[in-house]
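$ ./design --mode recover --in tokens.txt
reading tokens...
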């Protein structure tokens, strides 16, 4: 009854130095305690849900009493919309769900048990699916060797021996095993020790004979049980996990915004996961509002849509890089005590600038957290005023610091209604040129770790749709299938293999997700000139499971820059020209724009329009172009955004 122990590294508990088998052998009881982060996610979601329900006069949600046969939840599952659903969100699991089409809670229990290497490799999964959908005859357990007494045991799994408990029940029913004896059989089958199995085979045969079961049939069934027992999963374990899976699916189906806000809060330090979850919100038609000092809390929360019962997601201020928890808590506490902030100057005056220094303030502006209090001209978006906030920040902070000094002297400053102090600083917003889209997005990426109000790839999305085969959030592992992807290169890492050759690991982001790309030595040398951060790359290769991250990775075989992909895939450039655009010296001016790029093989076609006439004109080969972003920008500036099309055939 004794075991040597030692202390965990973090000092939080004692650990036995025996392994599980030795612990059991000395007579100690072994327990496994699994701390699931998902239970915290459910708890956070319910907190937000209960606030919604309270506003409608409804009782708090009891997640333990939700119906286990809920149509919206199963519709969500059958559509494989299981991103963020516990245990069911991997690409491989989504494929299995699409084939199985679960329609009852027993099917979810089975999913958890089936999605393991043993069942997947043995063909058991295909048998299970085919039997469920009537493509294979139900048998208990095999069409050649059946015994009707096994039907109640195997019916929930369509006659497939899936759970360890079924192995034990079969032994009890056919061969009269006791519960303890059946457990010993289960263990023996799992360990596959020949001497132990010979002993159990003899016991099973004798027991079946005593139960008047045909000995030949009994031993054929024993062989089947032995085969599947190696893959058998503990049903009680699977059922417990399946319940949490179902609860998260139910929450996602009925309370999508609170559920996604809770999941995002749990993962807000994992930028790669947040990118995937934000895209999932978009696919669910949930708006994700940027963080805001008047609407956000530390974690992600929800916001009610105007004139609607629907809710959207609000970004948590705690996810902004470079803003400490103390500064955030101070901002929220002041807002709750004295109301919303009115403008930049009011904000600077009311917060503790020792905790929210200039660097913190700049991070808040670049993340969009001050858009709510920005001076917005008519017809402008709030984010267009971020440059004004940034240029006005020094004056606002100076005025706030002066306000503090005056308060310490007992004086009244310009923010009060009384007489101004001699040292009061008169402040107003400084005008500034709006940031370009690239500047705005880079600011979001640097502070949030991702692009929130847009993505550099967006402006090329229509064109890239003719080149790529899939977006990253729709990928699955298939090492025999070549796929073409496009994404923004956000990280590059080069390591040495054991043979001393370089291996490049790239991270690409296509807004729907992020994915690692591997370039082996030969490919790395061939394409290294393209590897410049924040550029769009088109890559072709095979996608496999990444055992390290649990996600997917691509083994890259071909790579192009955006211009290189255009040159490879594009058929022609089309210019839509009106008669009015070709008067005077307009033709010569257009030729001047195009001529520097006439070194390629892509032909130009002009769609010419007069009021009563339309014609298609193909220019001669001397006008064939090398497609490039520089040319396209010049053509759009010269002719207008709608005058140019890229034709990919």
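writing sequence...
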């Amino acid at each position: 009854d004794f075991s040597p122990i030692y202390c965990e590294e973090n000092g939080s508990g004692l650990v036995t130095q025996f392994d599980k088998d030795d612990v059991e052998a000395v007579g100690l009881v072994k327990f496994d305690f699994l701390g699931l982060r998902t239970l915290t996610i459910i708890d956070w979601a319910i907190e937000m849900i209960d606030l919604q329900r309270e506003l409608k006069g409804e009782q708090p949600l009891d997640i333990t009493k939700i119906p286990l046969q809920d149509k919206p939840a199963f519709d969500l599952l059958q559509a494989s919309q299981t991103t963020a659903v516990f245990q069911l969100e991997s690409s491989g699991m989504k494929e299995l769900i699409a084939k199985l089409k679960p329609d009852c809670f027993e099917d979810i229990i089975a999913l958890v048990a089936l999605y393991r290497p043993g069942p997947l490799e043995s063909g058991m999964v295909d048998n299970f699916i085919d039997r469920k959908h009537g493509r294979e005859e139900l048998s208990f357990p095999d069409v050649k060797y059946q015994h009707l007494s096994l039907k109640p045991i195997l019916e929930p799994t369509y006659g497939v021996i899936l759970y360890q408990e079924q192995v034990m029940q079969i032994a009890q029913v056919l061969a009269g095993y006791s519960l303890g004896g059946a457990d010993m059989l289960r263990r023996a089958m799992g360990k596959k020790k020949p001497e132990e199995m010979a002993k159990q085979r003899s016991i099973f045969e004798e027991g079946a004979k005593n139960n008047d079961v045909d000995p030949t049939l009994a031993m054929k069934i024993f062989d089947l049980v032995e085969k599947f027992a190696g893959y058998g999963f503990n049903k009680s374990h699977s059922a417990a996990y399946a319940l949490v899976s179902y609860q998260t699916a139910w929450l996602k189906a009925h309370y999508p915004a609170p559920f996604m806000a809770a999941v995002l809060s749990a993962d807000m330090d994992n930028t790669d996961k947040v990118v995937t979850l934000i895209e999932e919100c978009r696919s669910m038609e949930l708006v994700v509002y940027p963080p805001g000092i008047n609407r956000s809390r530390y974690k992600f929360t929800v916001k009610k849509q105007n004139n609607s019962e629907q809710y959207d997601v609000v970004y948590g201020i705690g996810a902004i890089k470079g803003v400490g928890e103390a500064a955030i808590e101070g901002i929220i506490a002041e807002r709750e005590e004295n109301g919303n902030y009115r403008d930049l100057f009011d904000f600077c005056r009311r917060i503790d600038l020792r905790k929210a220094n200039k660097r913190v303030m700049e991070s808040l502006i670049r993340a969009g957290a001050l858009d709510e209090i920005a001076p917005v001209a008519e017809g402008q978006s709030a984010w267009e005023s971020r440059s004004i906030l940034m240029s006005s920040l020094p004056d606002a902070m100076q005025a706030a610091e002066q306000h503090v000094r005056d308060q310490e002297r007992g004086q009244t400053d310009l923010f009060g209604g009384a007489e101004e102090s001699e040292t009061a600083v008169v402040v107003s917003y400084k005008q500034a040129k709006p940031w370009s889209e690239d500047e705005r997005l880079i600011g979001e990426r640097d502070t949030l770790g991702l692009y929130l109000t847009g993505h550099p790839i967006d402006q090329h999305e229509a064109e890239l749709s003719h080149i790529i085969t899939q977006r990253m959030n729709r990928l699955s592992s298939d090492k025999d299938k070549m796929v073409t992807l496009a994404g923004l290169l956000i990280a590059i890492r080069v390591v040495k293999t054991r043979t001393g050759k370089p291996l490049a690991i790239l991270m690409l982001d296509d807004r729907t997700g992020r994915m690692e790309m591997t370039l082996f030595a030969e490919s790395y040398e061939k394409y290294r000139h393209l590897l410049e951060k924040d550029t769009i790359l088109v890559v072709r290769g095979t996608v496999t499971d990444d055992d390290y991250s649990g996600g997917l990775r691509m083994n890259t075989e071909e790579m192009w820059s955006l211009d290189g992909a255009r040159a490879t895939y594009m058929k022609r450039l089309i210019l839509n020209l009106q008669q009015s655009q070709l008067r005077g010296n307009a033709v010569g001016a257009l030729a001047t724009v195009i001529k520097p790029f006439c070194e390629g093989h892509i032909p130009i076609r002009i769609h010419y329009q007069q009021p009563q006439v339309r014609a298609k004109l193909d220019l001669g080969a001397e006008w064939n172009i090398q497609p490039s972003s520089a040319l396209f920008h010049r053509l759009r500036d010269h002719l207008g955004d709608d005058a140019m099309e890229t034709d990919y055939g």
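exit 0
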